[in-house]
Amino acid sequence: MLEKMEKEFDPEQVIKEFEDLTKNAKRVQTEILSKILKENCEAEYLKNCGLDGKTDPESYSSCVPLVTHKELEPLIQQIADGAPYPILTGKPITTITLSSGTTQGKRKFVPFNDELTETTMQIYRTSFAFRNREYPIGNGKALSFIYGSKQFKTKGGLLAGTATTNVYRSEQFKKTMKAMQTPCCSPDEVIFGPDFQQSLYCHLLCGLLFRDEIQVISSTFAHSIVLSFRTFELVWEQLCSDIKTGTLSPQITCPTIITAMAKILKPNPELANTIIEKCLGLTNWYGLIEELFPNVKYIYGIMTGSMEPYLKKLRHYAGGIPLLSADYGSSEGWIGANVNPTRTPEMATFAVLPNIGYFEFIPLKEANVASQDHAERGSELVLLEPRPVGLTDVEVGEEYEVVVTNFAGLYRYRLGDVVKVVGFHNSTPELQFVCRRNLMPTINIDKNTEKDLQLSVEAAAKLLASEKLEVVDFTSQVDLSSEPGHYVIFWEVSGEASEEVLQESCNCLDSAFVDAGYVSSRKVQAIGPLELKVLKRGTFQKILDHYVGLGSTLNQFKTPRCVGPANQIVLQILCNNVVKSYISSAFG
Ligand code: AMP
Q1: What pTM was estimated for this model as a whole?
Q2: What region holds the GH3 middle domain (predicted)?
């Protein structure tokens, strides 16, 4: 496969391979499971499950338990500590991935190996092939807001870094990007710089220097693109001055970045003047990307799930440039490719690649009925073991939690994501990302999800729009410190909103939750009035800095949408930056 990638990239051949795989999804899944189990039959974990050499799906699901990261954590820790025997995989694991930990506040160790890099490249090539059919690009460059985090050695000497860092450092990544005609316009020293603010600045500078060649603007998650252009608004004059004089801003102090930038930054007053003219000609920065990069064909990054709230701002910067939503995956491995690039990000779906792992799906309808049943009988809530179904047995219109078995030692691993099956591509399902499962803790009988929170914030943000303001970012907390518990929503707003609008927004946030459990609990005051806390400008930047300080990269940063008590530091940052708070009067 690696050799194949190094050869000339043929999009039509990639599409053909994808069509063949997806036409035979069931058979491919059985083969992949068998391959994974054979390759790893020496792993203690599998031996203990009593598979005795069996590799069929039925034996697999009856012998191997469903697990979450919590259950595997001690085993992964043993690997990181250098245990000399095969624990989860046949071949020794030499690299560990650190998940961003931004959704739940805790970073996770996940085993990583070359197969995961290969599957990443397969996903990249597949979605690129489909994208290129609709939006062909010529030879050029990509302005990619990507960042390598520091890699470090675990106690046992294994290399550890974020998934994106592990991928960006690989030779395969560069070869694939080159083959796809979109090498990154920034030098490696910028991507792997030690300070993301300096790297971000230089990414912007490189983008401007190569502005005529830029075909694609991208990042892993859309948040990072929005953050970059918000930063541009603040530093554009400095960037233009650097270009005019050919000298780098004194804010850039990292020696490797300075040396690398010196090779490409030469005085170019003409370019600087063009950019100044473009910027001055814009109204409220609308269409900035289109103006700065005359040959850009599209903007690319994950725009679904917790990224949806940034779409409005991204569209504002993009002007007429199409937004194309990227694929679906995680530190634990990739899942599906966006093979319908013309759909709006809100409608994006992901076709599961049947050969990149073995996938099962826990039906959520069944799980909900089961727990409701228990609630109605007034019995203690015992979660029934949900029975997952195979990749090709999922039903259109239903929601599921994704269970992954990969080549790097995860077996029947619950990813914690909720997806909805919206159709099939040949015989493989097309998924829509719904939300993280159980993100918001329950106070009474409420079952609000991350998606419900997003919709409530969207509804209330419309009120702000009347004052030409926007929600820069938001999160929430379930406050159980007083009886009854209540929801707290934290908002950072782009300017000073009036008292009336904020009070109205607070009421709207409360009444916009549609979950029947929430509404009925609010009516009888079993859940207290929702509280809106308005934050100082720059609070979410502090939260981001906190995660980056922990070694997370900007690539994988996702604002945590609900902050639990385990995430004390973030709670502290939020609480210390509240400037105003409002209590809802929506339910009397
Ligand atoms: P991490 O392992 O930190 O990179 O985070 C992976 C998580 O990001 C996944 O489990 C999803 O919850 C989320 N995610 C990844 N890809 C997408 C996507 N295309 N749409 C929405 N959420 C995504």
Answers
A1: 0.91
A2: 351-436
